[in-house]
Amino acid sequence: MSDSNNHKMEQLLSAYRERLMLYKTELEALWQTADHDVRSVQHIMSIAHKLNGSGKAYGLVELSQLARELEQACETAKALSLRELRASLSIPIHALLATLERETIARHSNRAPNCQPNSALQVNDTSNTIDILLIDDDPDFSNQLSEVLSQYGYQAHCQDDITQLDQAIADYDPVALIVDMDFSGQRFAGANHVSSWRQSSGAPLPVFFVSGYDSFELRLASVRAGGTHYLRKPLDIPKLVSLLNSELNIAPSEPYRVMLVDDDNDLLKLYDEFLTNAGYNVTIATSAQDALRLLEQSHPELILIDVYMPGCNGIELGKIIRQHEEFATIPLLFMSAAADTDMQLACARLANDEFINKPIELWRLLMVVKSRVKKGRHLRSHIGTLTVADAQAAHDSLTALPKLASLLRDIEKALPSQTPENVIAVAKIDIRDFHTINNLHGYYFGDEVLQRLTWELTQRINPGDTLYRESGDEFLLLTQAHTNQASVERYISSLIKAIEDAQIVSKHGMMVLTADVGVVFSTKNSTAGELLDHADMAIFKAKKSPTAEVCYFDEALKQAQKQCFLLENAIQKGLANDQFIAVYQPIYQVNDNKLAGFEALARWQHPERGLLGPGEFIPLMEEKGLISRLTYQMLTQALSQCATWHRKHPHLFMSLNLSARDIQKPLFLDHLTSLLSHYQLNPSRIVLEITESLLLFDWQQASYLLRQLGDLGVQLALDDFGTGYSSLSYLQRIDAAKLKIDRSFIHQWSLTGDARLLQTMVQLGKTMNMSIIAEGVEKTEELSFLRQLGCDQYQGFLAAKPMMAEEIEQTHWA
Known about the structure:
51% of the residues lie in helices and 17% in strands. By secondary structure, the protein is of the alpha/beta class. The chain has 5 domains: 3-109, Four Helix Bundle (Hemerythrin (Met), subunit A) (Up-down Bundle); 126-248, Rossmann fold; 257-393, Rossmann fold, CATH 3.40.50; 396-553, Alpha-Beta Plaits (2-Layer Sandwich); 568-811, Alpha-Beta Barrel (TIM Barrel). It is elongated.
């Protein structure tokens, strides 16, 4: 951004802070009357609504947050008595007043909002305009048409005297003429003078005749004068521009046209300045009436409308616009600081687009606007040949980034020019645990995070590189400005750091993001499809790591992928042929070492490799969606065995593990219910083990399943407790009967002698009325210490390894 633009932004911020003092004074006066005049509360809410929308846009995040809290408090207080109302608003209004005081004091240290538009997000250069000559004796018509055409990249030179046609053409050297037919009541004057000029000069300029009248005689005169087109007034501007572009066989460097409608002047001024600096042609309106009046003049390609405006709200304005035939297809984008679901749905029905929550930071405004106007212009420029789906395939509507189809074309274009000194690489970037952000904070916040990351990455990529987004939280990067692979590796590291340094603030505080990256370097015989496949292989390996990882594709990785394919086929065959069997590890009472139950564990009786442990097949089963079939088979075997043992030992329990796939699609529930009924088993003797990471993966679905299991009477055990990062929050929600302490904590005690963590975990479980099971006990001193802590049960190699049912009956049965 130029120094002059920076100065203008600083002036806007300074003026905004000056107005904050006025808001503060007005709020203080309204607060004085709030205890006896309910209208004061409505005015307070209105001011808070404005500050909520404008504060963050000007870089004042705290101000925006406090204004939102006050607005929400005012909404809640509507149902209260005046005395209760004043008490409920006291804290939020004084917090906002204090912040307003600080910001107005800070106005001498102005700092413009973070609004530097990145080259990757800017619109076309508009410095080269196209000269045309407009001849019409109506100055109002000429001025208005000239202003509108300037928005499309044309500079219209106006002349009101048709007799000066030859001289005007010599003076301005236009590439096209727009000529009125009627001058001073002479119906054919325009055609007559153009005809004379053509006979004298013969210049092959396209001529567009315009007239408020239409007749065969006028159109014939236009043809005889060499007219290219004949258009009726009032003019259809998009049609005129389209014909100009077609006749001149050029695509003018035309800025995108955007209209902003909001009753908040502070926001309008800031957004207007910012989008104008970014190369947009912006029209602003502070009311519905202004917007409708300006529509015909500005012909916007996108209208952003604030929902809550006095007199005529945004939804009503949208409906009015849709009733105008000439404006009915203009995309509408609604904005509001209020989280009102009904309002969002109403906006979506009108705009066929998402509802944008205020406050909207400047970088996000640019991203949101650009993605929509680009898609709309692309669609309009291919009318008759391009479907909406084609237009959507070009650019991502959320981030304005090009999509996969563009990447494939760009790779194919780049590959022929590759040299040993010009390394071409494709990187796939996946934000780790992004689903957790959506689950905990909602999809609107998740979308904002993706937009913030897009902004950060596009500001750091090299000028010749391109960032793409297909869907979800995955980005793709094509880079071709490096001389060696080491340079690419340093570059990728810098982009990862940009993600980790991104300032993402949620209602719970600062959020730190990490990313997995898969990178592939092109070779002499590479194709676009192969590069994308190999990038997929690389990121798949990276995502398997317990921490964020960068993986570079090589032939060994390709071979591993082949082995994975073969293993999947073998697993499929093994499931079909009942090769997966249950083994059982005994669980004992800590105090008296009596047998309490068993944990059923899966093994693969491989026809060639023998008995295989879970590490050989469970990860791939989970990845390929085969784990639910294994759960089905393990339930069948384990509950059948449990029924056999219960004839002599009804007090024993049988424990089995559930996977994330089982939680998402609990198809096993009907099977479990059927087995319990068939074998007449007491449901309380069946324990299903779930992990906290599994719960976090999809808590909404998990909570539904837990309720179903609770109704069935099955017990729950929280497995691997302490290895996640949300244990305490879920401990209160799931009503588990058992708490299983992971082997790693017992091993750590053995090494260090530090008992504090183990003691805390046991005490916590006891407080929640859970029995405590320690896993992986291997030493006598470990068992003795668990007895001192009050642990209830244990399992591990100290007592018994997992065994076949027959082996248990022969060696461990009382």
